[in-house]
Amino acid sequence: MIETVLADGEAVVVRPLGLADRGALAEGYRRLSPESRYQRFWVRTGEIIGDRMLNRLLMQDPGNHALWAVMDGAREYPGVGAASFWRSSEDPEEAEFSCTVLDADQRRGVGTLLLAVLWLEARKVGIRRFIGYTMPENVSAIRWMRDTGAEAEWDGYKVIFRWYLESLDAIPPTDAGIALAERLAEFSEALWQGA
């Protein structure tokens, strides 16, 4: 668990999620706008996340899967956003990174904060690259991924991004890139000791 503040000074806690967080994760999914659910899961669904997806997300597999959330205990619903990585079975040095932030909390540095935490968690277990996917119409996600140093390619259907986790020099001097570098420095001692 990490106590920190968002860019606007709001105090938050960043922590891993587990099976006890099932109800909170389901509520966070319900609170997403239909467009945000579509951009994250690529299907038009209702407000209910299925048991199978909840089980898959919440079943921690140390070294292969991690799920962390940003929480604000002062709110009625404390969830702000969550992100996960899944190690590739074909290439154990690569993991898929995904992130979801509640609509009202987007553009507050939540995604960058979560990227930094999972970046360090992944490095600790030997993951060297994150891969992320987004639809071509998700312009804000594309901009954020590039601004945090990810390389992009287009496969004719989706945009594929890769962050090289050992190459901090590749993080650009954009606002998001600077924020990422600062978060990596802030959390490195707590999360990456001896890695």
Automatic annotation (TrEMBL):
| InterPro entries (UniProt xref) | Acyl_CoA_acyltransferase (IPR016181), GNAT_dom (IPR000182)
All copies of the N-acetyltransferase domain together span 12-175
Give GO terms: molecular function aspect only.
acyltransferase activity, transferring groups other than amino-acyl groups
- What are the record keywords, sorted? Transferase
The protein depicted here goes by the name Acetyltransferase
